[in-house]
Amino acid sequence: MNLKLEDLPGVGEATAQKLRKAGILSVEDLAALSAREIAQRVEGLSEDRAFSLAKEARRRLGIGIYTAKQYLEKRRSQPKLSTGIRSLDELLRGGLEPGITELIGGYGTGKTQLCLQLCVTVQLPPEKGGLSGKAFFIDTEHTFSPDRIPAIAQRFELDGDSALENVLATYAVNTDHQMELVHEAAQYVKRENVKLIIIDSLTAHFRSEFPGRENLVARQQKLNALIHQLIRLSMIYGVVVVVTNQILDIPECFPGMKPSKPAGGNIVAHGCTFRLWLERSKDLTKITILDSPKHPRASTLVKLTEEGVVDADAS
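Structure (tokenized):
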């Protein structure tokens, strides 16, 4: 279904122009925003009118009420994105799916390497575990390494230059820019067949710009707004979202507790659908499903190679 704004009842050329001028370029954009957000953006549009437009947009897109059986069938029909790691795909029951997947870990655990690998696997056809799409990579720590992509692509029998062309990358200079880029990513999803959005890392700029307890509330409110942007994007367009996250040391903890925790607190914990913890041990990395609404907690071992992240027992 390729709906235009003008296809909605009561949206003529003038209203459509006002919506597009405000950055609401599609029916999907309209469906994702609240009436308050739409009214704030579009001059002369009341909240009541905005509510009616958004409601009709959701109806036309089929965002409605389902039985649990229908919902299950819909979820099962969604293609999954292979991580390129057999054992991890098995733990995830086929791979990554729409929603936010958080990769948590310290320096050198392979978070960015796995993200780069996903930039390649998303380009594979569905029969090989991909989504036949492009990746949109938002870098916040200067970790994006395009030189790694051709080697990983070769492992998956893809042309290196073509693989590079199908990864859109940008550097976010601060939290405002990071939020702006997520908004721009929505347009690339529509125009460029982007099926994967990556932020590496989610919390780095927030921790830098909002230090200290006195800034905690402001930081968490802004971080919450960003996460909800990503949730909407994933829900409306069915894209896979992957974010990396830093860890914080816990000076004093009880026996049996991890001596570290993910940054971002409960805002990130509740906002991310799937949380994977990466820990480095000698030459291997242990990946554990830390939190998921559908997967049991389980772990697998992988290793980092020139050709990407592979199973620990791969030759």
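The first strand starts at residue 99 and ends at 105. The mean pLDDT is 92.
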